[in-house]
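Pasting as-is:
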Amino acid sequence: MSTLSQRPAHAVVGKPQPHESAVAHVTGSARYTDDLYLQMRGVLHAYPLQATHAHARIMRMQTSAAYRMPGVVKVLTATDIPGINDQGAKHDEPMLPEDEVMFYGQPVAWVLGESLEAAKAGAAAIEVDYEPLDSLITLTEAIAAESFHGIQPVIDKGDCASAFADATQVFTGEFEFSGQEHFYLETQNSLAMLDESGQLLIHSSTQHPTETQDIVAQVLGIPAHQITVQVLRMGGAFGGKEMQSHGYAAVAGLGALLTGRPVRVRLDRTLDMTMTGKRHGFHAKWQIGFDEHGRILALEATLTADGGWSLDLSEPVLTRALCHIDNGYWIPNIKVQGRVAKCHKTSQTAFRGFGGPQGMLVMEDILGRVAPKLGISARELRRRNFYTRGQDTPYYQPVRHADRLAAAWQQVLDQADVPHREAQIEEFNAAQDYCKRALALTPVKFGISFNLTAFNQGGALVMVYKDGSVLVNHGGTEMGQGLHTKMLQVAATTLGVEMSTVRIAPTRTDKVPNTSATAASSGSDLNGGAVKDACEQIRARLAQVAAGKLAVPAHEVRFSRGVVSDLSGRQQIGWSELVNAAYFQRVQLSAAGFYRTEGLHWDLSRMTGSPFKYFAYGVAASEVEVSRFDGSYTLRRVDIVHDVGDSLSPLIDVGQIEGGFVQGAGWMTLEDLRWDTSDKPTRGRVLTQAASTYKIPSFSEMPEQFNVTLLDKAHEEGAVYGSKAVGEPPLMLAFSVREALRQAVAAFGAHGTSVELNSPATPEAVYWAIEQARAGGGRL
């Protein structure tokens, strides 16, 4: 067992711990970025002027009237940018447009005012003349116009032509599904200020402080060392603050640089929903072949992602979608092509799962649709095609621990009493004409690591003070997911002290440089490895001091819960006493830690390699009841078995599994993004721009019974204390809800009815699917 994975006796990791800020969250004492300006004087408030066309040329912009409004201090336009006018990763995303707007609601100027009301009034006073241009709003329009940008990757393995020729049955189809609004509780915001030396401090609600630092430096034309980005905590992010936060930090930084005063940028909910990117919607066109036993022989598909007006992270989102179209299933022959459509909408961006959910949804939709046509239950069709030992993915990465998926599947069958409940459901459906029930199981196999190998690194700075207290700085950001809690547990375990001895400092680029985004479910892996490395350096130095005190070799010194002892435990010294002694011996009591994920290699041009450190597995069983009259439904029960390795913090992990599942169920069933596709002047406007028009899950959508179990005997060698990532994989467990809805709809039709179900499967969509099933649509 590697030292990275090995847990000492009496470890703090693995013990249920409440979130380190739980009390502060519920009492309201937790401070967020936008709380900080209340303690400052002279803060300017920023407000955008938004474009009123989906695509147009700017003919004239007149800002003089804004300056006549009381309280207006400065209007920021493209001409004020001293560096490079670009806030994206691909140099295709001007922070402020110079002559062309690319989506309805795009900011064309920012007004800085003494109050938010003054800034709003100033923005309303700006005069802009536009020349409207043709626009592409829907994914279908973009595909028809062949409007694509970025790379077009291809996964190609085996011989599809021969496999289709040998197939007993071949099916074809298309599937288009919607994106998802992040709807984090805390909207995008930044606060920037200059000190007396010209150093720019930016408080930002960002998942990627280093990239925020880089983008601000690029826009302002100054070196990175002149900028410090700090993240206290975020009120949610879900990927929406991985890239899209940078531009707002740059606006605040530009305003502070030009005025010398602190500048606050905070979007209200409508601004956030109309200006920021979403999860990518996708269109899929596919052909799949099976042998006489219902095993997949071949799959060909084209996946088109709705990228919006600029690339943002669309390319890696697309490649991850291609790498996850197999989900947990062995596909010996496969060819999948990917494209990014360019539309005149918000630039779509990272969202929990980062393309993986879109690729996996395509496969789950295919299996749900074709199972009745094959004469096999959907549950059995899925099980029959699971990966087994010795098989590899479409990109040639061996699937380690494939047996864990089958183990989780069987554990759900047993714990949820699935066969017995299926029999009960069959009896219920036979007796009921106006409502039907169904129970569906779906698996998850999700790869953990960043697509870009360089991002798979983390840093930390750990400092031990003379009194024995410990301060940990690491490169990860806390957005409610419990990362700081886990890092406290890792540090306490490695140093052999109680958690109360350790404190986490806010994430800052001047303490830990060149950080990776807290994303790709890798926050604990990367930062935990770095924190452990730093703590091990300090512990090794202290062991030498303790060896002298205890008169034993250094390798026989043990650290446990604040006590340092020899192997027998008879000779002991307190942690704080040892630290104090080390100080007087001039022993360094701080260390910079570093971690890089080993074993990764990836050839993007060929889409082959081993891009993932490991796979996380899970299985969910969901039972629904559907009404024939209006398509409404109830989620009666959910049972989940999920693989988190040897959990660092079980209470945190169960919360992530529950939250991820519910968010996924929202995407699958409720959250219906809409844009104005008419020929009116408002074409391209986001129609679902508030909680009143965009439905996210609430308590009423929670399952009546919700059972979550962590998979046993799931140690992951080579990961920090044998743990696995948990942030993203649970979201895909919610496919079971949609598949249960499909099966319930089919129960309204004749035996063998194949149901095509829209996504999201809103009650309206379910109602029309029921009508089609009752009319015989999809029947063999």
